[in-house]
Structure prediction request, 406 residues.
Amino acid sequence: MMKPRNKQLFWWLGALVLGTALGLLHNGAVDAVCKFIATVYTRLFQFLAVPTVALAIMTTLISFGKQRSTRKIFAHTITYTLLTTFVAALVGLGLYLLIAPENLPPDMLSSASEVTSGGTSFYDHIISVIPNNVVQPFLSGNVLSILLIAIAVGLALAWMPDSAGKGVVVKGIQGLQDLFFTLIKALIWNLPLGIAAFAAQLAGQLSGGVILGSLGKYAAVILAGNAVQFFVVLPLFLLARGINPLKVFRAMSPAVVMALFTKSSAATLPVTLSSAENRLGVNPKVSRFVLPICTTINMNGCAAFILVSSLFVMQNGGLSLGIGSMLLWALIAVISAVGNAGVPMGCFFLTVSLMTGIGAPVEVMGLILPIYTVIDMVETAENVWSDSCVCAMTDKDLAGELEQVG
Prediction:
């Protein structure tokens, strides 16, 4: 009997093939139906993305308050997570500037609005993110302000002393998150319909190879960034701590391979724990603390995806970005990725939410969707490899000191 995840992959690939075939028909009625379906799915992505991401960031940060009894391990885990994630984003930025994907044809983005931040200075852009009341960011759709509020609320609840009032607020936030996760699961359940529609649009407009060239370079940036992070950056981190990367990889390879095919760090976690303890020899005090946290917050591949996809979407919206703005978006991508706790298709929804907030052409994300399955597989494998590296480095750093932790 086919496993649920294999069934999902089967349906998504089938929808991709069907949509491509429909697009190549160049039938007016079929094209109109596909355009309608694609528009509906784009609006649903926008509807779910912002509250889901904000709630995920809050629940992630709230959980930090429970880690006070193991401060040393926690501090090392957070430090390595932020370092590797930020480097992953910078690698993605460098490859984006090097490969330079072209814009998509303008007629593909007919409903795109002009990017609202294009005429503002860097200073004004920073000031616009700082909220001056609670309601306005939600009414205006200022996603960066909403994320800032989510971070502040999450950290405040993490450090608040336990009380009945805090418990009610936390349960309310967790309940809302469960509600939106249920809505996302429903959307993902019928997502093959959306994939078929987006694939049909894409196949029907492959004129002159411009689209394939642009999307091909975009995909090359994403996949090359993951490869550089996987085979170069993370091994260098290990070498800097005096750890043999080949030894770590051999020990953790079962988890990395499983992550590639399951597309889920959480589903891979039991294998990751077993490999770390039984094959790599990591102290269980470290592995059983570090790896569950890393599964939640250590998202190297996600940070690179958010940054590169955001730059690609903004570029197609006509926004000219300077190096200062790009570095700001790298920071935004890192913070967003760290807060991406357990969100199905989290990287995709995070990018949609950010682009919605600045009025960029979210339709571009629909065109990326048909190839997202492959990207998601590679990114998940990289994330688990990064989790393994963080665990190995933390174990090496705290060897001999663990009796002082706890």
Q: What stands out?
A: Residues 28-64 form the longest helix (37 residues). DSSP finds 16 helices and no strands in the chain. Residues 111-121 have pLDDT under 50 and may be disordered.
